[in-house]
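Progress against Task 2.4 (sequence-to-structure conversion) is shown through the following example record, which the project officer requested during the mid-term review.
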Amino acid sequence: MSMRTHSSSSCFILLLVMIWPKSTVQQSACPVTSGNSDSCCSSNSCQKSSCSPQVTGSTPAILTLNDFSQGGDGGAPSECDGDYHDNSETVVALSTGWYNGGSRCGEYITIYGNGQSTTAKVVDECDSQNGCDSEHAGQPPCANNIVDGSAAVWQALGVPSSDDRYGHMSITWADA
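Structure tokens generated for the chain above:
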């Protein structure tokens, strides 16, 4: 093999390494973070993450409850459209990694839980990097595996507010 051929091969391999998509490796290596308690704000010990577990046809997650209406616990208007949303709308916020810089804004996901399924529109980010401030209604950063759903999502899944799981339930989800 001539020096010129060897040099060209090395450059080609280096180029491949530089341009090969890294998101797949980063996503699959992203560990699930545990949820932050409200006390992490006062102790400045909140876990923060910019990645979420890889999305599959049945992505495990935790469904939490969010009030997307003005004055609700969601804080500011929804990131995707700058609007507040009524609790009768099936809407969700996704953890930072799944929100992916807004790439899922306006898209629908299918949520499976409690033996039921429903679709919901992505309207916001459940911020896994920032929190404990007025923009986030004083709440700590989200864990990186959160689907934060409106009351309508919980109702569509048949989970009454009297159920112990209401507000925090294991689910799976997929892009619709």
